[in-house]
UniProtKB/TrEMBL annotation:
Molecular function GO labels: ATP binding; tryptophan-tRNA ligase activity
Full protein name: Tryptophan--tRNA ligase
Pfam families for this protein: tRNA-synt_1b (PF00579)
Keywords recorded for this protein, A-Z: Aminoacyl-tRNA synthetase, ATP-binding, Ligase, Nucleotide-binding, Protein biosynthesis
Amino acid sequence: MESQAQDSVRRLIVLSGIRPTGPLHLGNHLGAVRDWVDLTNRGEYDCYFFLANLHMLTTRSAALHTEGKKSGVDPKELYDDQVGLVLDLMAAGIDPNKALIYAQSTIPELTELMWLLATFTPVSRLEGMHHFKEKKGKLEEEGVGANAALLTYPVLMAADILGVQADIIPVGEDQNAHVEYARDMARAFNREYGDLFPVPDVWQTKALRVPSIDCSGKMGKSHPEGSVFYTDSEKVIRQKFSRAVKATANPPRTQSDWRNDPGDPATCNVFSFFDLVGSSEDKSWAEAGCRGATISCGECKARVAVLVNEIMAPIRERRLSLETDIGRAQAVEILHEGGKKARGRVQEIVTRAKEMVGIPAF
C-alpha cells in the first residue's frame, strides 16, 4: 500500500457503501455484506459503512424534468428504504458499536471535496467509465436521459473514500475502475499540494456472481421474483426455487420420466447455487444425481432451497424482530450518531484539503 499521508499509529480504515434502493437479498449478502460482517468482527480495522443515498439519485431521469414532468419517486419511500437498510445491516450481523454506519447525505463536505477532485478529472475519463456507459445505455433503452450526477458518480465515490482517508475498500469487480480512479486522485492531489490522502487498496475475495432464480441475469432488487430477500420466509424460499428456471438454453428434464432423461449441471442455473451455498458433498450429490438421472430437478431445487434457508433463517429472525417502531427509531439514531462521527472526521480532512489548495473558509 502506498502511504504518503498515513499516520503509522492509527488503525487502518475500511470503507464501503451500498445504495438504499430496496431490501437486501442473498446476492448482496454473499457478494458484500457477509464480508463486511467478517471485517468488523476481526477487530483489526475501523470500519465505515455508509448508505450511498446521494448515489441513489443518479439514476433519476433528467429527461422527465426537461419535459416538465415529475419523476414519480416518492420521498417517503426513499426515506423508508434508508431506515430499512440500516435494519438489514444490523440483522446481517453488523454491530453499530463496532462499525460506523452513516448516510452519505449527512456529510455536505463530501460534495466540497468532490468539486476539488473534479478539477483534476478530464471529462473524457468519466465518459469512458464502463459504469456510466452501461447505466446511460439502460436509461436510454427505457426512453429516459442520464443526469449529470451519473457522469460524476466516480468523483463522489472518490470523495467518499478519500474524505475519511480510507485505506481498504471492499468492492466487487464492477467497482474496481472507480477505486482505481480514487487512487489516481489521491496521487494527483498529493503530487500537486503535498501528502494528505493515503492511496487506498482494494480488498477483494473471489468474485461472486449470484444468479437470479428466474435466469434473468444477476440477482437484484429490480427482479423480486428472482431474488431471495432477508425477510423471505422458508415457504417463500421453497416456492421461489420450485419455480426456478433451469437454464434459458436448456429446458427442464422430463418431469414424468426424469430417470431416463439425464441432465447437464454445467448448463444449469440452479446447480450453480451449490458453489455459493453448499458444501462439496452437496455439490457432488447434485452433480452425480443429475448426470446419472438418480435425482429429479425438483429434488435438486428443494435441496438448494434448504441450503439457502439455513443462511437466511437467522438473518430473517433478527430482521423481523427489528421491524418495530422502537427498532426503526434505533436505526434513525444510529444514522444520526454515525453521521456526526463520520462528518467530524471528514470536516477535518476537507478543511485541510481546502487550505492546501488555497481556498480556506473565511
